[in-house]
Amino acid sequence: MNWDDDSTDAAAGDEARIVGASAEGDDQAVEAALRPKDLSEFVGQEKVRQQLDLVLKAARQRGATADHVLLSGAPGLGKTTLSMIIAAEMNAPIRITSGPAIQHAGDLAAILSSLQEGEILFLDEIHRMSRPAEEMLYMAMEDFRVDVIVGKGPGATAIPLELPPFTLVGATTRAGLLPPPLRDRFGFTGHMEFYDPAELQRVIHRSAGLLDVEIDPAGAAEIAGRSRGTPRIANRLLRRVRDYAQVRADGVITREIAEAALSVYEVDGRGLDRLDRAVLEALLKLFGGGPVGLSTLAVAVGEERETVEEVAEPFLVREGLLARTPRGRVATPAAWAHLGLVPPQAAGPEGTGSGAGKGQQGLFGA
Ligand SMILES: Nc1ncnc2c1ncn2[C@@H]1O[C@H](COP(=O)(O)OP(=O)(O)OP(=O)(O)O)[C@@H](O)[C@H]1O
User: Which of 152, 164, 274, 332 satisfies CB 3.0 to 4.6 Å to 117 for a cystine?
Assistant: First the structure.
């Protein structure tokens, strides 16, 4: 699937959701404690792990700095974690910054000129760097050199500055937005996929061990199934279920406890939260499954257009519950099944739909 087409940037409103993939303020300290420290502890992403293992081992054997690495993938899949593992495996210090923090070429020059030999520079959201900084980065990556411009206008001069060899680890949720000259300068590109439930179960067991929480396999499976393929969400749900287990039960997480806790937080069996379900319900109950325009749908759920489009829809599309078509938003048969409703054409005159489901027929009807 190509999530690059969806807006997976930290969309407004996503941070506050229990199933939001971006990090909340309170997540960051706990996340640090739960981060795998080396490649063997890092769950899943077999391909990227194997390839990276080779790149790093080869560099170590040659006694050289590793090639620049680009990691692409949706928020919360482990890009920051992997960059820290790269530093640990290379026994090198790491400097962490992000595209939005580098708005002027001078900001980047200051960082680059203070790097030590072999240091890892982690540049998160690299697609959000300013153009002048990006151009400076091309030369730095290729020749380990930057031209610092002193003065302005006709009197301006470029002073070349040699840099120690370093490894840039760039992370992006939108690889398609990177200009080709920047993409081409990475020696290795790893694409992070969403995790399958069995992998998330391993993440949850590992985190439960670190948090000193007792959890049985069925409890871990229940949380994994609601974590939207994302370790960050799995860890967050685990912490909320732990609270419930501690306050309302004997502290042990079983399937029943996980189900009860996550229903308190309105996260359903497939990982949809209140907003996702409100969008689906409006689409099915008010518009017979669509097609309906985004603005109309947003008004129906009392949310901004952007919130529906950027916060709720990407996951609904990924789950195959909603389709974006040129004629508007359309529910798929899986959406009707998920909410336990019957599509109008199948329901007959007393069907649950409001009778506005004509478009449904053309797209998904028999
Ligand atoms: N493969 C993994 N195995 C175990 N835990 C993981 C894995 N990937 C991510 N995590 C956990 O998920 C949390 C989020 O990971 P991380 O911060 O690396 O994501 P990210 O892709 O950098 O997100 P963002 O794009 O928002 O910066 C971390 O605390 C880490 O504990």
Answer: 164
